[in-house]
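User: Sequence for UPF0716 protein FxsA below. C-alpha cells please.
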Amino acid sequence: MRFSILPAFILLLPLGEIAGFVVVGRAIGLALTLALVMASFALGVVLLRRQGIGILRRMSSEGRNGVMPGRDLLRPAMTVIAALLLIIPGFLTDIIAILILIPPVRDFVWRSIAKRFVVVNAKGGFSDRPKADFRDRNPNSKVVDLDEEDYHREPDRNSPWSGKHLGD
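Assistant: C-alpha cells for UPF0716 protein FxsA:
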C-alpha cells in the first residue's frame, strides 16, 4: 500500500501553525506576532499581483502546444506558489515560501520534477509513432496511448442503466 504524505500534511499543518503562533508569540509578544503575520500576507499579495495569473496561462498554453514548461517558467510559477503560501497565515508556510524563493532550492525542485513531466499533444503526441514502438517507452510510464480504432465503447444491454429494464 502506497503511503501518501498529503493527508498527514493537511492534518498536521494547522497544528504546527498553532504551535508556531504560540512559540513566536511568547518570544516577541502578541503585537509583533500579528504584525509579522500581516506583513507576510501583504508581501504575498504584492508577489501574487506582480506575477499575476499570466504565468499560469502561459504554462497552460505551452502544455496545450506540446511544449514542456521549461526552467524559464519555473521561477515565476514558484513565486506564485510562494506568494500563496505567504498569504496563508502562519509561520511554517512562511518558512516554506521563503525557501521556495531561494534559487538553489528552485533548481533542486526543478531537477526533481522535470523527469516526471510527460507532454502528450492531442494533435500528434504518441500517435505519430509506429504501433510496435510502445515497448520503447519508459516501462514505468503510466501513460497508455490508444487510437480511436483501439478503443470504443458498446453499451451493455444487461446494465441497469441501459433503460431496458425500465418498462418491465
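Residues 5-28 form the longest helix (24 residues).
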